[in-house]
Amino acid sequence: MNRGFYTIMGAQFLSSLADNALLIAAIALLTSLQAPDWMTPLLKLFFVVSYVCLAAWVGIFADSMPKGRVMFITNFLKCCGCLLMLFGSHPLLAYAVVGVGAAAYSPAKYGILTELLPPGKLVIANGWIEGLTVASIILGVVLGGVFIRPDVAQPVLDFFHLPAVGLTSYAEAAIFLIAFVYLSASIVNLAIPDTGARYARAKFDPVDSIKNFTESCKLLWTDRLGQISLAVTTLFWGAGAVLQFLVLKWCEVALGMNLSEGAVMQAVVSLGIALGAFLAAAKIPLKRSLSVLPMGICMGLLVTCTAYFSRDVAPAGGISMFGGELSWAAIIAGIVMVLVGICAGLFVVPMNALLQHRGHVLMSAGRSIAVQNFNENLSILVMLGLYALLIRLDLSVQATMVTFGVFVMTSMLLVILKHRRNQAEYDSTHLIGEAKRH
Q1: What is the Cα 238 distance to its own chain's centre?
Q2: What span, in angstroms and rounded, lies between the C-alpha atoms of 16 and 10?
Q3: What is the DSSP code (8-state) at residue 435?
Q4: What is its main location (predicted)?
């Protein structure tokens, strides 16, 4: 790998680290503002709405100038979103600005790899990028939890004299620090070399762009393998977004944890996903990718059973670690969350690989990524909206988790039945590994 690739990795790590830390800090900010509980999941909804609304144009924007410059602009926009959150704008609207930057950043991040590296290194490069992203998710939620702690936030408020400009809460101190992480990512983006790749100037014509994008969506949804893999990844990202908030709330109600401790438990789920992804990469070839579908049912079942667990049913006491006491309830919950993550990683990684393969065969990598991003983030919008509605209706955390788990199990069962029906009509598995048609 050349120097430019490692620069991209550094910028991607910092940007993703800040994205995940900001979610925790923004939740803390809403809490400090005494916002209603149903508003918390809307943070993620406002973040991903740009992925859906701008899906037909972000790729055009990414190709309009050198990718390093695009990544600089979009990371700087995220930094501006943090400043808006600090100085007067509603947290939801400011987080939406950060989401615009993230939506435009994604196609540039993946597109530059094909410009910078030979085809033989693309699989390795994507593996490094995805592995680094998982690491940044784990560290990001932990970092966000650390930043909002009083013993960290108060010295920041004092050192930078933030009360003088109206910033007094621990959440605001955390967001102030995260803005510097985004700024650091922008500076690293400036060191990304210009690959020299230039594209014919595309028009941002609304009608043609939407028409071409719609045709791409139809092409992938009507493909027998594409529709199965796209359905699974769409369900996964929607469910994963809900699980982010559900784990935090479950930790608070069932385990008596604060937001910082809940963020660590959220990171434990990400660790499980990383383990599942590693197992999938090591044990499941592309030809056998469809064999992992039952793992989605296992994930839903685990979440359903977890709803009935609390510190009251766990053994008393715990073990001493790193100078502190870790309760048996937290240990058991952590093990269950790792298992949930492993199931998720085992079934989504092969499905993602299959989807990328079919997208490459049927259209192009860029177009298929745009379709995938659109569907997955539309799922996030819908499922977070439903989750916010359940909170608004005062449904208990236990009932919400059961509803969520049963929904995942039922959805995955329907996907499995659809695949079996497709296979009964026509064996499509021989298309896995098929060369590009044009």
Answers
A1: 9
A2: 10
A3: P
A4: membrane
Helix then strand then coil, % of the chain, to nearest 5: 80, 0, 20
* Tokens read off for 359: 């997208």
**CA–CA distance, 122 with 110 (Å, rounded to integer):** 10
Q: Are 238 and 296 contacting, i.e. CB atoms less than 8 angstroms apart?
A: no
Please report, as a single letter, which amino acid is at residue 146. Answer: V
Kindly tell me the burial class for residue 239, based on how many C-beta atoms sit within 10 Å of its own C-beta (0-12, 13-18, 19 or more): buried
Contacting residues for 218 by C-beta, under 8 A, at least 6 apart: none
What domains can you pick out in the chain, each with its CATH number?
1-190 (1.20.1250.20), 208-425 (1.20.1250.20)
**Which amino acid makes up residue 193?**
P
* CB 75, CB 186: distance < 8 Å: yes
> 206-222 vs 328-362: helix axis angle to the nearest 10?
110
Q: Say whether 224 sits in a helix, a strand or coil.
A: helix
pLDDT digits (tens, 9 = 90+) for 354-408: 776 777 677 655 566 678 888 888 888 888 888 888 888 888 888 989 998 999 9
